[in-house]
Amino acid sequence: MDAFIFFTVAYFAAAGAPGADTMLIVSRTIVGGRASAWMYALGIAIAKAVMITLAFFGAGALLSNNPEFFVILKTLGAGFLLFMAVRLWLKPANAEQTQQTENKDVSAAASVLGGFAVSISNPQPLLFYSSIVPIVVAKGLNTINDLLILFVIVFSGFALITAFYMTLAIAIKKWLASGKNQAVLNKTMAAVFVILAVVIALR
After folding, report:
1. Could you give the CA distance from residue 192 to residue 174 in angstroms, rounded to a whole number?
2. Where are any strands of DSSP class E within the chain?
3. By C-alpha distance, which of 181, 178, 170, 163 is closest to 41?
4. 180: exposed, middle or buried (C-beta count within 10 Å: 0-12, 13-18, 19+)?
5. Which residues neighbour 52 within 8 Å (Cβ) at sequence distance 6 or greater?
6. Nearest Cα to 59, choosing from 121, 155, 117, 134?
7. 0.85 cut: is pTM over it?
8. Which helix (H) or strand (E) holds 134?
9. Alpha-carbon distance 98 to 81, whole Å?
10. What is the C-alpha to C-alpha distance for residues 59 and 20, in angstroms, rounded to an integer?
């Protein structure tokens, strides 16, 4: 039980901190609505589960020693964020029209894939899990059933984190009720995506 508690605390500290994943949830909530944000959150959680699985079976160290693999991942993730930035920059100012356009343009599968791409392209979480998961394994969590429990912690934990950041985003969205404010927000979020793309590319 101590190992699960240790993992849960470490996971919440890492996944809940402001970063590319949480900023993606905020922006998707504001410009795409809750449904879109939840789909992106699912993709992010799946990526985290994949990274934890790699760390659990010892592949994290192998992957971290192959920089060319990370270059490919970072390029894909940064490219996706830049694509999202361009879309936001060019979006119409009217909030309702923006919502309708978003719902038509982005399918649930594409949203999940987008969240997965952004999260998996960031090597820092994999390096973090590669240092935490071996400690958990050393404490006695080394079976498939233990790994499944870690998955439950990951998905339920990130659902709570997503709900928290969604609440913040909804409060911001209420303030941005007019079309003029929505246009400003779209361009601000586009700039945030560009910054996040640069951060991921340079890590």
Report:
1. 20
2. none
3. 163
4. exposed
5. 129, 133, 147, 150, 151, 154
6. 134
7. no
8. helix 123-138
9. 18
10. 24
Is 65 in a helix, a strand, or coil? coil
Question: Residues, the chain, total?
Answer: 203
Sign of torsion over alpha carbons 153, 159, 163, 166: positive
* Token pair listed for 183: 């246009």
Helix then strand then coil, % of the chain, to nearest 5 = 85, 0, 15
Q: Round to whole Å and give the CA distance between 136 and 3.
A: 5
Q: Tokens 């429990």 identify what position?
A: 149
Query: In this structure, what token pair is assigned to residue 66?
Result: 């192959």
Provide, rounded to the nearest whole percent, the portion of the chain with pLDDT above 70. Answer: 76
Distance CA 57, CA 182 (A): 46
Provide the 3-class DSSP secondary structure of residue 178.
coil
The pair of structure tokens assigned to 164 is 């928290």
With tokens 């649930």, the residue in question is 108
Task: Render pLDDT for 79-121 as a digit per residue (tens, 0 to 9).
Answer: 777 877 787 777 765 544 444 444 444 578 888 888 898 888 7
| Residue-range domain boundaries for the chain | 2-11+19-202
How far is residue 105 CA from its own chain's centroid?
20
Q: How far is CA 158 from the centre of its chain?
A: 9
